[in-house]
Amino acid sequence: MSAVKRTPQEQEYQEVVLKRLGERIRELRIAAGEDNYEKFAFKHNLSRAQVWRYENGEDLKLSTLVRVLRALNITLEEFFKGFDL
């Protein structure tokens, strides 16, 4: 089975969304008093590299987003409430 090819516009939109997701994660982490992503990752049993990648716009699974949001003690609804592109 071959991978679905995305148009350049679809690829660009995906990159914009992932970047905004990462920015939102970082905003909420800092708002929760977690200034250092490495300490946050260690405290919540997450990979430092993983947190860094997500905050910098790399693709992530929904299950991973849920783990990060649980660590921040917020719901998906709260996360997306302030989410805009």
From TrEMBL:
A matching Pfam family: HTH_3
Annotated TM spans: none
InterPro entries: Cro/C1-type_HTH, Lambda_DNA-bd_dom_sf
Domain HTH cro/C1-type: 45-79
SUPFAM superfamilies: lambda repressor-like DNA-binding domains
PROSITE patterns according to UniProt: HTH_CROC1
GO-annotated molecular function: DNA binding
Protein's UniProt name: XRE family transcriptional regulator
